[in-house]
Amino acid sequence: MITIGIDAGTSKWAISILEEYKKKGKTKVKFKFETIIPTKEIKSNANAVINLIENFNADCIVLPSGYGLPLKHISELSDDDLFKISLKNKDEKESIGIRKFLDEIKKRNLNGYVIPSVKHLPTVEDFKKVNVIDLGTSDKLCSVVYALSLSKNFKAENFILAEIGYGFNAFVKVRNGKICDGIGGTIASSGFLAHGRTDSEINRNADKFSGGVLNIIKQKVAPEDFFKNYKKFENGNLAYNYFTDGIIKDISALSDSKISKIYLCGKISGFVEGEIKGGLERKFGRIFEVKNIEKNVKGANWSSASRGAAILANGINKGKFKNLIDWMEIKEAKGNIFDYVFI
After folding, report:
1. Confidence of residue 11 (pLDDT cuts 50, 70, 90)
2. What spatial distance separates the first Cα and last Cα of the chain, rounded to whole Å?
3. Domain at 1-117+302-337, CATH from 1.10.3470, 3.30.420, 3.40.1000, 3.40.50
4. What is the pLDDT of residues 223-282, one digit of tens each?
5. Contact 312/325 with Cβ under 8 angstroms?
6. What is the largest CA-CA distance in the chain?
7. Which of 6, 124, 249, 305 is deepest in the core (most CB within 10 A)?
8. Into which CATH architecture does domain 151-292 fall?
9. pLDDT digits 0-9 by tens, 45-54
10. Three-class SS of residue 159?
């Protein structure tokens, strides 16, 4: 069985190809091929990526799904579905090109699915969904799938997954192997690029891709250059402390006495791993295990979300990971992102 997972990010898209096979009577899996493509290339030529995917003749594909839908085949997507996934109409400019990509892939006879976000899950209590759209987008759900796939006993896992990306941060809480809460990108702390949570008075006319670290230091630099020498930049201390303090506060908001494990992923996560561990331990007075699930793995041509999406596709197609996907109740997702909004 061949399954494909796709993660559409602010700066890059990641594609993971998972193969399930038999060896000496046992079911095995391996990532057969993985690649990363700059987002700007996909926005300008989505068909090149679709052709690459099509060449693998996959049994099942989990497609980039943005704000998500209850599990749905690509052939069934309506124009309204595409709006709910992207929050963009046909004629509106997209930041990462998901709507255009799905529009193109829908025209081909591929066995692809769009998937839920955290808000759609029945394992998240309804009161946590009031007046929010983003508790963690569909790619964050996939990152959790990947984290759980690394465990020998996923049903006993309790952790917070913190994705520290180039654009946004997001945080998802897992209790007993099921997603139970989250803080999505636009209501989370500041990202490297985006401002994240702000007062409504400020946010009314603000560009969501502004107000982060880069705006505070008033210049565009690579993340590695900033975190290596942040004190040398104008407002460098202000930006660094604002950024890391926000991450610690968001993790703290989701934490409880059972949480001692923090999984990190995302482009920026490796630069702040020590600061997160130290900050949490100072605040709570206990030891935290902070593990970067995208660090120290051979190659850099994948993301936790692309791998999780390929694993999810395997589970949807009744492969080795079916039990994990069933346990997470992803197929039971329902509703839409505008449910429980009373503003």
Report:
1. confident
2. 46
3. 3.30.420
4. 999 999 999 999 999 999 999 999 999 999 999 999 999 999 999 999 999 999 999 999
5. yes
6. 63
7. 305
8. 2-Layer Sandwich (3.30)
9. 888 889 989 9
10. strand
